[in-house]
Structure to design on (741 residues):
């Protein structure tokens, strides 16, 4: 009984602020904007829309649809930020004053993404941007242009730019992970004449597996719910021709741009997004438990 | 290697930190609003001394409170508008005059209409509103008027206005909004000094227009003859509408707005394919650039010769007397149109200060309020009886461009919704990939609401 009394406040909060909104959202997703019950009709509308998946005429420049764009974010951003963070953690492991460098890198992580998006407006601007100026300097004229003005470079520019914003996370997690590995393992391997690369693949990386799983899970969740960075750098449509459109923006448009608002379709996107994040989380958690 | 890496990271983050710091600051022009800027020299004299003006910084824009110079028991009403920086200066002076005359304190907050789209539906659902008089696009007012806005029909009358001005915010016979002043989107702006220096003349036919662009492109230092302003895509939509209203005619513009003509129709396509696309493909337009920073500066600085923009540009340049403007040359047999975009406002049902809000709405809709605004340049009155002598010379010139043409509403503002944002985004695509015309038109048509 006493346990229930202590448990009740937390349970109440969870029911009120987590469970109820989740079930209410699922409920809303089953109704049309005029309030009539449509079952899974909104899901059909969303998933069948060319805004969600549009590979007609592939290969072609983006847009490919929000779902595909989110998948591209995961495919490019995840390995880049993961391995860059790991590499920096390894390189900075025994460097004097490394904490200052790590702090500097981590600033990207605590910068609000909407600010990150606005910064990218300027970084990629064809007139004053650092990135086009750099490519102009080295003579790559095809990239010495406004990256956010062209569908070919827009999505990839935002993905590459966001690596800097997220690398701090994997750097910090891997740095913490490295401190848990006894130095004896590396010393023993060194005495046996193991090469640095082999030491990494056989000792360091396997022992960092729990951290890798955390980084992968959190990064996928971050990439699935990406919204503010794209919104800040482009417009409610995901920029030129919708080339950087993502699921979060699509949900926003259904709810706040469309007239009259299609809250049912927005709730359907939200539910779909939740299912995707649950799949990613459950899969990695199951993997961790098995290990 | 480590040292280089550390140096690069520190420099990058210092630059980022400084950028974030400066981006987070209210625009410098905000502070200068009441100290005088481009529009200050033309402002009505002495009026602002009669009221107290307080400027506060805010993360969501800037907030200006205008109070009478004496203690008052009147409630402060809050007006929300899209203007910030130099664009807000004239409007603040109008509010100052309202407070001076009525004694009603007014707080002005700048919130972009894109942001109001998110804020208003949730506030309406909970029976509140962020302000007492709110400027918003007409399509939003029309869609939400009956449910959440005060009927202004008794407060604001059609007979006070240029005919048709209120149509965009009417549901049946009831007007749920009012219209303040508006802006004409007359055509291509140029610096008279630049045209004189290079012996350029205003074109009278489309062929002359193309010849002019070729001539400009050969001038040393010119990047492209025309600079393309861009925000979230809307300046490109203004250019496109101007081409449609000139070479498709006013009726084509109205039909597209009424959704009775398809964007993929052959005559609509022809306007794009024959008039606009050759100029885009021929690199006569620049890539889309941020309209009120990079594009404006580059054009005024001589990197481009022409800039398509609305009449508010007269309040944004250092020397409005150096401005000239021309519309696209007319084609025989086609009745041209020019877009006039009114600034619409509404009073939410949830205001606690209904009487004062209606009083401000009436002031903004009437001759007195609008006279103060047009006197400062960049705006055209919608209220009748505002004498032309109140306009600065450059605005009288703009108003003359409307002689003999049909006045049209802003197409994408009128349709609104995700048609509008898709329209903007597709035009951004067309600007850099003119070869995708058919795909662009098909996408625009796919978002036309039923």
């Amino acid at each position: 009984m006493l346990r229930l009394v202590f448990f009740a406040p937390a349970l109440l909060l969870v029911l009120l602020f987590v469970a109820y909104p989740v079930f209410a959202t699922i409920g809303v997703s089953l109704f049309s904007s005029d309030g009539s019950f449509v079952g899974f009709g909104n899901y059909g509308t969303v998933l069948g829309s060319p805004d969600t998946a549009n590979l007609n005429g592939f290969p072609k420049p983006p847009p490919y649809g929000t779902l595909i764009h989110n998948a591209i974010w995961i495919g490019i951003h995840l390995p880049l930020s993961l391995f860059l963070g790991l590499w920096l953690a390894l390189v900075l492991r025994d460097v004097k004053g490394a904490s200052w460098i790590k702090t500097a890198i981590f600033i990207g992580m605590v910068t609000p993404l909407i600010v990150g998006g606005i910064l990218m407006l300027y970084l990629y601007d064809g007139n004053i941007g650092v990135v086009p100026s750099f490519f102009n300097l080295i003579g790559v004229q095809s990239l010495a242009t406004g990256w956010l003005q062209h569908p070919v470079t827009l999505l990839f520019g935002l993905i590459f730019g966001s690596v800097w914003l997220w690398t701090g996370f994997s750097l910090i997690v891997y740095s913490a992970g490295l401190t848990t590995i006894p130095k004896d393992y590396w010393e023993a391997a060194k005495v046996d004449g193991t090469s640095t690369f082999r030491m990494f693949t056989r000792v360091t990386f396997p022992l960092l597996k729990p951290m890798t799983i955390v980084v992968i899970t959190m990064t996928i969740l971050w990439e699935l719910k990406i919204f503010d960075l794209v919104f800040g750098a482009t417009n409610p449509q995901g920029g030129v021709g919708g080339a950087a459109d993502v699921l979060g923006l699509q949900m926003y448009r259904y709810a706040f741009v469309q007239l009259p608002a299609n809250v049912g379709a927005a709730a359907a996107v939200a539910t779909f997004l939740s299912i995707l994040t649950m799949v990613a989380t459950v899969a990695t958690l199951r993997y961790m438990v098995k290990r | 290697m480590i040292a280089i890496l550390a140096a690069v990271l520190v420099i990058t983050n210092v630059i980022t930190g400084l950028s974030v710091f400066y981006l987070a600051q209210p625009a410098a022009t905000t502070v200068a609003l009441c100290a005088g800027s481009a529009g200050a020299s033309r402002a009505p004299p002495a009026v602002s001394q009669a009221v107290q003006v307080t400027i506060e910084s805010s993360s969501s824009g800037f907030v200006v409170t205008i109070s009478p110079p004496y203690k008052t028991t009147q409630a402060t009403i809050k007006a929300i508008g899209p203007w910030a920086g130099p664009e807000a200066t004239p409007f603040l002076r109008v509010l100052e005059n309202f407070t001076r005359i009525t004694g009603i304190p007014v707080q002005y907050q700048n919130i972009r209409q894109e942001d109001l789209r998110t804020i208003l539906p949730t506030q309406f659902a909970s029976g509140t509103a962020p302000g007492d008089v709110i400027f918003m696009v007409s399509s939003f007012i029309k869609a939400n008027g009956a449910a959440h806005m005060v009927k202004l029909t008794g407060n604001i009358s059609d007979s006070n206005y240029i005919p048709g001005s209120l149509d965009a915010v009417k549901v049946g016979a009831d007007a749920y909004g009012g219209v303040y002043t508006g802006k004409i989107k007359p055509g291509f702006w140029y610096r008279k000094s630049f045209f004189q220096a290079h012996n350029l003349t205003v074109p009278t036919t489309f062929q002359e227009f193309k010849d002019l662009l070729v001539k400009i492109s050969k001038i040393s230092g010119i990047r492209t003859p025309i600079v393309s302003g861009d925000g979230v895509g809307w300046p490109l939509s203004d250019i496109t509408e101007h081409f449609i209203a000139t070479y498709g005619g006013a009726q084509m513009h109205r039909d597209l707005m009424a959704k009775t003509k398809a964007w993929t129709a052959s005559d609509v396509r022809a306007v794009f394919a024959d008039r606009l696309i050759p100029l885009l493909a021929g690199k006569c337009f620049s890539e889309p650039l941020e309209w009120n920073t990079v594009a404006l500066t580059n054009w005024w600085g001589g990197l481009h010769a022409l800039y398509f923009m609305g009449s508010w540009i007269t309040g944004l340049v250092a020397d409005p007397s150096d401005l000239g403007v021309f519309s696209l040359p007319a084609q025989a047999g086609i009745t041209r149109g020019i877009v006039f975009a009114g600034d619409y406002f509404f009073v939410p049902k949830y205001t606690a200060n209904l009487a004062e809000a209606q009083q401000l709405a009436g002031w903004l809709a009437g001759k007195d309020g609008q006279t103060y605004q047009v006197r400062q340049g960049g705006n055209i009155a919608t209220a009748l009886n505002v004498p032309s002598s109140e306009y600065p010379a450059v605005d009288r010139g703009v108003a003359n461009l409307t002689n003999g043409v049909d006045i049209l509403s802003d197409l994408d503002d009128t349709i609104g919704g995700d048609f509008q944002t898709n329209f903007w985004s597709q035009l951004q695509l067309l600007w850099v990939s003119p070869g995708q015309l058919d795909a662009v038109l098909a996408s625009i048509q796919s978002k036309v609401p039923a």
